[in-house]
Design brief:
- The chain is of the alpha+beta class.
- The two termini are about 30 Å apart.
- The strands form 5 sheets. Strands 11, 12, 13, 14, 15, 16, 17 and 20 form an 8-stranded antiparallel beta sheet that branches. The chain has a 4-stranded antiparallel beta sheet with strand order 5-6-7-8.
- It has helices spanning about 5-10, 15-20, 40-45, 120, 155-160, 175-180, 225-230, 310-320, 340-345, 355-365, 385-400, 410-415, 430-445, and strands at about 25-30, 50-55, 55-60, 70, 85-90, 90-95, 100, 105-110, 130-135, 135-140, 165-170, 235-245, 245-255, 260-270, 270-275, 280-290, 295-305, 320, 325-330, 425-430.
- Helices cover about 20% and strands about 25% of the residues.
- It is globular, with a radius of gyration of 23 Å.
- It is built from 13 helices and 20 strands.
- Bound molecules: FE2/S2 (inorganic) cluster and fe (ii) ion (FE2).
- The site of fe (ii) ion has 6 residues, from loops.
Length: about 475
């Protein structure tokens, strides 16, 4: 890749071409947890948080009536920092001269001005539309006055609170390399390899996802995903567009003449992947740039069976980060906890068995803040990454030309994009395709919350017209 091309697809600040593309989508900006007084007592007294997203500094607050607002951070009077504002019943007040702004950016008061002043009516702070889904606040950062797209009807955004859990984490790297690790089906055979198998019990606990059993059996025996990944490390990777901007990744690992391991995941343009955590839980992960060199991942866990134990899931994850930034405890400063003895005897990477998120963090951060793609050598196993970059460059051009990029959906298109399904299973070699489709259907039919939600069966998404409504 040429250096200018790498710049094009990684720079996301105001005025950049890729930044304009990413402003075509709703972007996660905070967990609702961050405004939960039980989890953050400080937020009870003063629910105001500075937010940096796509290289812009904003302030997120909840007024006394419970409404959220996301505003530009410099006060429109003389530029003082509204993140230090006084949070009041109906808005956020700048402490410099007392100007007050409602959640929609309307100026409510300019108390130092003479009585009868009309200045308020001529001032408006830029505010950004928000919506809460599955424990996460999403913001629309597109051009003022333009119509936001709709979020797809993905399971992760529709599941009830009882079957959802959301968390986030900060990585010190560019958004694209953070996303590219998630659409790379070859790496689990290496990066997440355990040198021996250990117990499958508690495999849904934090950071142990490849310990879980793959669905199905080999000679009457259940196998953990990690054993399959380790023993069959040369996968056949396929990808199909099930809609414009939604790729289904099918990764096949032939095991015996009769058995094939099938892993199905999805990549939703521009920065979301959907993968299985276990037989009944799916992870939908979005990647939002803080700026060019830092990225938040937001994970949505969605259960198709039992309700989730949010408190346990949250506590396991909080133990690995520091607040308020959700910055991981390990990182470049301590060599990501690297231990040569662990690498020799226990894991392929040498960063322990308990937190595979740390493995991914090392992969994406050790490349450098912005990966120098002029020096890379892509192979056949990188085919999804190549396809995604082609889509990305094309979408940047589309937005430059005033068009609508993939996955910036109209309501009807969004309603048709359901699922997407994930699976990790051992299938009969000769009918693996039917096998995984049936397994995915069975998983969905086990989800009581999907009944009556108007969702179609797996497979039908493939027929969703990609061009509908255009
Ligand atoms: S700078 Fe904010 S009120 Fe004056
Ligand atoms: Fe990974």
């Amino acid at each position: 890749m040429k250096a200018d091309q790498n710049e094009l697809i990684t720079r996301v600040g105001p005025g950049t071409a890729c930044g304009a593309l990413l402003r075509s989508y709703w972007q996660p900006v905070a967990l609702l947890d961050e405004f939960d007084p039980r989890l953050d007592p400080g937020s009870a007294a003063r629910p105001v948080k500075p937010v940096r997203v796509l290289g812009e500094d904003l302030v997120l607050f909840r007024d006394g009536a419970g409404r959220f607002g996301l505003l530009d951070r410099p006060c429109p009077h003389r530029g003082a920092d509204l993140a230090f504002g006084r949070c009041e019943e109906d808005g956020l007040r700048c402490p410099f001269h007392g100007w007050k702004f409602a959640v929609d950016g309307a100026c409510l008061e300019t108390p130092a001005e003479p009585i009868g002043s009309q200045l308020c009516q001529r001032v408006r702070q830029r505010s950004y539309p928000l919506q809460a889904r599955a424990g996460v606040l999403f913001a629309w950062l597109g051009a003022e006055g333009s119509v936001p797209p709709a979020l797809p009807a993905f399971d992760a955004f529709l599941a009830p609170a009882s079957h959802s859990f959301a968390f986030k984490g900060l990585w010190h790297c560019n958004w694209l390399q953070a996303f590219e690790v998630g659409i790379d089906p070859a790496h689990p055979s290496f990066l997440h390899r355990y040198l021996s198998d250990g117990s499958m019990a508690d495999a849904e606990a934090y950071g142990r996802q490849f310990r879980a059993a793959s669905a199905g059996e080999v000679g009457g025996e259940r196998w953990p995903m990690t054993r399959i990944m380790r023993e069959f490390h040369r996968p056949e990777i396929r990808f199909d567009a099930v809609a414009e901007g939604l790729l289904r990744l099918t990764t096949l690992r032939p095991m015996t003449d009769r058995l094939t391991h099938v892993r199905v995941t999805h990549a939703a343009f521009p920065a979301t992947f959907v993968i299985p955590l276990s037989e009944t839980i799916t992870i939908t992960q979005m990647h939002v740039p803080v700026d060019d060199t830092r990225t938040y991942w937001y994970s949505f866990f969605t259960s198709f069976a039992e309700p989730l134990d949010q408190e346990a899931m949250r506590n396991q994850r909080l133990a690995c980060v520091t607040l308020p930034d959700y910055a991981p405890i390990h990182g470049r400063h301590d060599h990501w906890g690297f231990d040569p003895e662990d690498q020799r005897t226990r894991t392929y990477l040498g960063m322990g068995e308990d937190d595979i998120n740390l493995h991914d963090q090392w992969a994406v951060e050790s490349m450098g803040e912005i990966q120098d793609r002029t020096r890379e050598h892509l192979g056949t196993s990188d085919k999804v990454i190549m396809a995604n970059r082609r889509t990305l460059v094309k979408a940047i051009d589309t937005v430059r030309a005033g068009g609508r990029p993939p996955m910036a959906l109209a309501e009807a298109e969004a309603a048709a994009l359901v699922g997407p399904d994930t699976i990790d299973c051992i299938a009969p070699a000769e009918r693996w395709e039917e096998h995984w489709t049936e397994a995915a259907r069975a998983k969905r039919s086990g989800a009581t919350w999907l009944r009556g939600a108007g969702q179609v069966a797996p497979g039908e998404v493939a027929s969703a017209p990609a061009e509908a409504g255009r």
